[in-house]
Amino acid sequence: MSELDRSNEPDAPDLQLTTNELFDLLADGRRRAVLRYVLERSDEVRLEELSEEVANGGTGSTGELPEQLSIELHHAHLPKLADAGLVRYDPESWAVEPLAAVTELAPLLAGLDE
After folding, report:
1. DSSP E strands: which ranges in 8-51?
2. Tell me, what DSSP letter sits at residue 74?
3. Are 29 and 114 a contacting pair, CB within 8 Å?
4. What is the pLDDT of residue 6?
5. What's the pLDDT at 12?
6. What's the confidence (pLDDT) of residue 8?
7. Intervals of the chain under pLDDT 70
8. Where are the domains of the chain?
9. Quick one: pLDDT at residue 49?
10. In a 10 Å sphere around its CB, with 0-12 CB exposed, 13-18 middle and 19+ buried, how is residue 75 labelled?
11. Residue 95 pairs with which residues in a beta bridge?
12. Which end of the chain is more exposed for a tag (fewer CB within 10 A), N or C?
């Protein structure tokens, strides 16, 4: 099994995912949209703003209502992205912050359809 482990490189983000884990994360269009949006930002974003952006097509329209998308992001997608070390998500304040490791996915995301 291949690992994306560049921890020996100086100042490299600490992204350690197996190929299967990476494909699983990128398989869902909502997660890709979230990752694209947080890549554009360097600061924290609120769940409401993120849901609006993803639902309304700023990073690829899902056709979902922002309220429905907020629930799905809160319960499923953001915890999964946080567990992978790509974002920091505080479920109490609903704050989402990109982590340095997310930058490693920028070339992959650029090559994938929305």
Report:
1. 45-46
2. I
3. yes
4. 37
5. 43
6. 41
7. 1-14, 57-63, 114
8. 19-110
9. 95
10. exposed
11. 46, 90
12. N
**Predicted local distance difference test score (pLDDT) of residue 48:** 95
Which regions of the chain does DSSP assign to beta strands (E)? Answer: 45-46, 87-90, 95-98
In the numeric block, which tokens belong to residue 39? 């890549």
- Position 14 scores a pLDDT of 62
Side-chain half-sphere exposure of 32, counting CA atoms within 13 A: 20
End-to-end CA distance of the chain: 27
| Phi, psi dihedral angles at 63 (to 5 degrees) | 75, 5
The Cβ of residue 101 has, within 10 Å, a number of other Cβ atoms equal to 19
Q: Which two tokens stand for residue 101?
A: 């490791």
Q: How far is CA 52 from CA 40, 66, 89, in A?
A: 15, 5, 17
Distance CA 45, CA 71 (A): 16
Cβ pair 37, 47 in contact under 8 A: no
